[in-house]
Amino acid sequence: MPKEGIRNPETQMVQDGKWELQNLKFIGEFLEVNDLSTPMIAEKMGISRQSVYYWLKKDDMIISTIYALFDAYGMKIRFELKEPGVKESALKIPVSGATSKKPNIGFFEAYLKRNGLKRIQVAELLGVKKCTVDHWFQFDDCFFSYICKFAQLKGLEVKYTVSRIND
Fold this sequence. Notes:
Blueprint: H1 9-15, H2 25-33, H3 38-45, H4 49-58, H5 63-72, E1 75-82, H6 106-114, H7 119-126, H8 130-139, H9 144-154, E2 157-164
Antiparallel strand pairs: 1-2
């Protein structure tokens, strides 16, 4: 009788498409709506399946990778930080797409400026060093979980819109 291999329950959840996503819930929905699997994503982006599994298992990824994922499928995604219940924001910054070179975390920086928040305040709120926050803006990238944590601590919602690149 052949012996069954030991299965990692967390990896199996990802393989079965049963993600318990909070931060990257919109990516899970994108995969589900478009009937995409993690191997399909990996192949399309030219990366390993393990990378995609890791993102979903950790419920986190670098913002530039989020843009690259949607870009690979001819889509662009735009993020906004909004007060709960606010329907329209005065600030709308598109943030990716093959046809534009917009900042990856421009929406975050714009929110900070609009609300008079300093990077040191963001660092203290998130429990990281100021040089970490400076690094995000210097390299125009950070893990999406930091944006989500910031939003949660400030009572904000992270809103997103997805559209075709040519729209």
